[in-house]
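We include the pair:
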Amino acid sequence: MTVRELQQSCGFEAVCLPDPDREISGCYCGDLLSWVMGRAKSDQAWITIMTNINTVAVATLCDVSVVVLSENVAFEDDVRNTAEAKGVNVLRTPLPTYEAAKKLSELI
């Protein structure tokens, strides 16, 4: 499944999609950035409520396919611009993390 397919299938809002055709191979849920750095894998969707600039850095470091912001949290414009510049796909949903992960699990 691609990031675009996830966005369309789940009705998630596109925050920025510099690489919408990137494949998703799994999912990681977590908000403690140091924990995510050691456990998220390349090509996974990362579901989080973290919205600071370090979220983009961790997404880049872990090479995740997409960051899914749950609970309707939002990036500030400068963080969104950095995500776009770094090639980090970001989607947003009003769903809680668990519900977003369930939806993703049904599709992969």
Q: What stands out?
A: The helical segments are 3-10, 33-39, 53-62, 77-86, 97-107. The first strand starts at residue 13 and ends at 16. The chain has a mean pLDDT of 97. The domain at 3-107 is CATH 3.40.1390.20 (Udp-n-acetylmuramoylalanyl-d-glutamate--2,6- Diaminopimelate Ligase; Chain: A, domain 1).
